[in-house]
Amino acid sequence: MDGIHDLGGKDGFGPVPVDTPDFQHDWERRQWALSEIAAAPGGTIDWWRHGIECMAPMAYLSLPYFEKWCLNEMAHYVDQGVFSTDEVLAGHPDAPGEPARSFNAEASLQFARRFNISYAVEMSTGPEFELGDEVRTINTPVSGHTRLPGYARGHTGRVVAYHGGHLFPDAGARGTHEGGHLYTVEFTASELWGEDSPDAVCIDLWEAYLVRA
User: Fold this and answer.
1) N or C: which end of the chain has fewer CB within 10 A?
2) Cβ distance 110 to 193 under 8 Å?
3) CA 182, CA 162: separation in Å to the nearest integer?
4) Contact 203, 191 (CB under 8 A)
């Protein structure tokens, strides 16, 4: 969606730190693990991402990365009826839950295999673009989830790779299982930001984001 979360290519936020540790505090490690193995039922990865996008702008800008994960997980659990807002605020459930199941090695492997997911899908139509084609990204407002960053909209690039059909994230955030052809498109830095530069930026983009240049 078009909001403050789409920070790529925007001025005023300072450099991106690349030498910080993955986790600043021990609780962040636990939050990462909970998000990986105990995600709220009934959602998709794109609906999860859209939940973070729906946060109030000041909350998004001021909260640490994994605190946003935590709040998003709680919102999804409440949305799915796993627990209530009152239980979140109280810090405990109204009634005790069932004891946790014990896992042997085989059960643990079966559980882990659930996360070996492919998002590739068979397409009934062929791709519209070929390697080397010049394409232009669409430039329209978006109210839902999208993987087309704002800084790349309305710009011309070149198709450098084709990846077949993959689940379309814009539809996935709406709960719809829909595939789309996926490409890697290369843009010159000068095309995106208007400055002379030998650098290039490659972005994975779905066919729905592209028109022929």
Assistant:
1) C
2) no
3) 6
4) no
Place of tokens 């109204």: 94
Q: For the chain, 213 residues long, give each residue's pLDDT as a single digit of tens.
A: 788 888 776 778 888 778 888 899 999 999 999 888 887 877 788 999 999 999 998 999 999 999 999 999 999 999 989 899 999 999 999 998 888 888 889 988 888 787 788 899 999 999 999 999 999 999 998 889 999 999 999 999 999 999 999 999 999 999 899 999 999 999 999 999 887 888 999 999 999 999 999
The first and second tokens of residue 39, run together, are 């995600």
198-203's contacts with Cβ under 8 Å and 24+ in sequence apart are: 201/152, 202/160, 203/149, 203/152, 203/157
Task: Give the list of residues 6+ apart from residue 6 with CB closer than 8 angstroms, or none.
Answer: 149, 150, 151
CA gap 179, 12 in Å, rounded: 36
- Please give the full DSSP string across 109-177, using - where no structure is assigned: HHHHHTT----B---SS--S--TT-EEEE-----SS--SS-GGGTT-EEEEEEEEEEEE-HHHHTTT--
User: In whole angstroms, how far apart are CA 42 and each of 84, 97, 120?
Assistant: 16, 20, 20
* Tokens, residue 99: 């004891």
